[in-house]
Model the fold of this input.
Amino acid sequence: MIATLPDSSRIVITGIGLTAPNGNSPNEFREALLTGKSGVSAYEIRYVGATLAGVCKFDELRHQSKKEVRRGTRAGGVGIYCAREAIQHCGLDWPNIDKARVGIYVGVTEHGNVETENEIYEIKGYDYDTRYWSHHHNPRTVANNPAGEISLSLGVTGPHYTIGAACAAGNAGIIQGAQMLRLGECDVALAGGVSESVRTFGIFASFASQGALATHEDPTKASRPFDVARNGIVVSEGGCLYVLERLSDAKARGAEIYGEIAGYALNSDASDFVLPNPERQAQCMQLALQRAGLEPGQIDIVSTHATGTSSGDVQECVALRRVFGDGPQPAINNSKSFIGHTMGASGALELAGNLPAFRDRVCHATINVDELDAECALEGLVTRDPRELPRVDYILNNSFGMLGINSVLIVKRL
Done:
């Protein structure tokens, strides 16, 4: 059990900074989830035209100057906003923190597509003369960019890098941060995930060509995991970064603790580019439970990955049935029904939406399930209205991605 480890090896969450299509702080986001407020709206993007998306509306100039915003990237700007909000939220004496002992671990689905598309579009107006190509292009598109922009903004001289883990990246960033703290590589970790996906037409066009881009006359009803009428993914942007610390350090400074990293696992399907493998997903959940020293019946809430695709939702339900069987069933919900798929940020954001349940014992609902698909009928699925639970001690957070990468994170109430 994680509780038998010394406090110096136990990793806790002491700060949360986020921006989502329906909220720009943990409290605002939670309130939107409890009241059924969607963040999906009509959206138009070059070449694709009218579509739907989840677009964040945070104040870009809250933590950056206009010049910094122009020079940097949207993913970097999201990351800076989330990182600085998390630091303010955690109560660290930031000016006196040794910045060489801070690590930045940011999960991303993709990076550089937006900037490359924009540069090609711009030089098109100059007959593709590359003399007009921006000298900012390379630092904008290198894979470490979002984490690097955060490092520059905060003056962090410890390690920074991004974790490319498709849509499992938000969980993967948190897992990396926890591992680096346990290894003694840093004393504070800024960890989670970010996404700038709505700024690239390519991701919309690709999902559309797969027949996997959601459509609906009412944008707020387009993202509908588990519903029989679901017809695809709503592309969204967002970010969520956590301040992670060792329990011993958090206790020493009297920090407020929002949860403890109890267990985690990453594995690979090794079976298809895009189609999920429920056997491997189940194995990933089982490994995370094993590492946390838990039985399935001890999990109180499962935050699902379900994206609203016809096959993906069903396969995750198959995996959940394999893990939880006929025993006690957890409450099950889905945050993408509110905000769409925030790609590399999704795992981190979805966890943030459920963490307050440790205190209020309320599982937020899955909205837009007007007619439940029989293949997605899970006993614990919470739809339409939030559900009060007798206890919430453990939350299991699923996040899966293309090329068969699976991540599962279990967080414990302290």
Observations:
- The chain has two domains: 2-252, 263-412.
